[in-house]
């Protein structure tokens, strides 16, 4: 063993997700819907008393542009943030007179919010639909809008450096070894069928990485009884890329399939894949 001293540096960061919900009630909404075109903004809100990120909701009663005219447009705005940018995804619902959620719509991925930037839905619901459903939807001439926000944040990060005798520390190969289990179908115990093609996999790994797969195997469902899962709405190429991430944690490079892959990540609860594949240049939702 060499007597030379070598410095070994290491670091660790864990991404966590903070979720919170805000409800906004708007009075005299039928009159607003029929007579007003200006945007209406909610009071400022945050996730908790100590949270310095300030948010607001905004509606456009008759759309925000020519293309969305005739629709109610809804947006989430980041008003203030000491640490920029903020990555978040969101869902909107209307709460009906029975207290039930209706007309739900959610963003397909995390969006990058800068201060005073907004993301949302230009065509949330047609104005005519709201007016036609007025007797049961708008009790006391009010609209109740609810928004659920999920914010990605670095909850834990630290590093260290130690000086020790020059021993070469082997590179961690766990991801490669798990990937080899997937690529070579070693010791598999379930089958996934995609567009008629069969892929062998491991229930323990699928359940550990995806809450959707875990639910299939935990409950008395057909998938649990037969160890065979039919995967719909995915092509084999995108499915292979998703499974590669499940086994190795490495986000694939698929520029032409980014939207499909993000939708698959949302479908199977792979939040870290959604965040890693979020594009830098974002477009408005409609």
From TrEMBL:
Q: Name one Pfam family in it.
A: BTB
BTB domain mapped to chain residues: 188-255
MATH domain residues: 19-149
Tell me which positions the record assigns to the signal sequence: none
Q: Which domain of life is it from?
A: Eukaryota
The UniProt entry's sequence similarity note says: Belongs to the Tdpoz family.
This chain belongs to the protein called Speckle-type POZ protein-like
* Originating organism: Mesocricetus auratus (Golden hamster)
The gene coding this protein: LOC121137944
């Amino acid at each position: 063993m060499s007597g030379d001293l070598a410095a070994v540096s290491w670091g660790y960061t864990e991404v966590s997700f903070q979720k919170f919900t805000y409800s906004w009630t708007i009075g005299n909404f039928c009159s607003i819907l029929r007579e007003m075109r200006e945007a209406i903004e909610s009071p400022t809100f945050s996730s908790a008393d100590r949270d310095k990120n300030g948010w607001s909701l905004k509606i456009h009663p008759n759309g925000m542009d020519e293309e969305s005219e005739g629709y109610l447009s809804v947006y989430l705005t980041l008003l203030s943030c000491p640490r920029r940018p903020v990555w978040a995804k969101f869902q909107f619902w209307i709460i009906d007179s029975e207290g039930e959620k209706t007309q739900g719509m959610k963003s397909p991925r995390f969006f990058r919010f800068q201060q005073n930037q907004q993301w949302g839905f230009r065509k949330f619901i047609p104005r005519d639909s709201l007016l036609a459903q007025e007797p049961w939807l708008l009790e006391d001439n009010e609209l109740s809008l609810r928004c659920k926000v999920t914010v990605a944040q670095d909850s834990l990060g630290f590093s260290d450096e130690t000086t020790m005798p020059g021993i070469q520390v082997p590179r961690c190969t766990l991801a490669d070894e798990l990937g080899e289990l997937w690529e070579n179908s070693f010791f598999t115990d379930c089958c996934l069928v995609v567009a008629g093609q069969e892929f062998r996999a491991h229930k323990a790994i699928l359940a550990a990485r995806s809450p959707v797969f875990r639910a299939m195997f935990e409950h008395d469902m057909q998938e649990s009884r037969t160890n065979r899962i039919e995967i719909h709405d995915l092509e084999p190429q995108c499915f292979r890329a998703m499974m590669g991430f499940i086994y190795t944690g490495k986000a694939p490079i698929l520029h032409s399939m980014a939207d499909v892959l993000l939708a698959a990540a949302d479908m199977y609860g792979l939040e870290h894949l959604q965040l890693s594949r979020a594009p830098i240049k974002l477009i408005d939702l409609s």
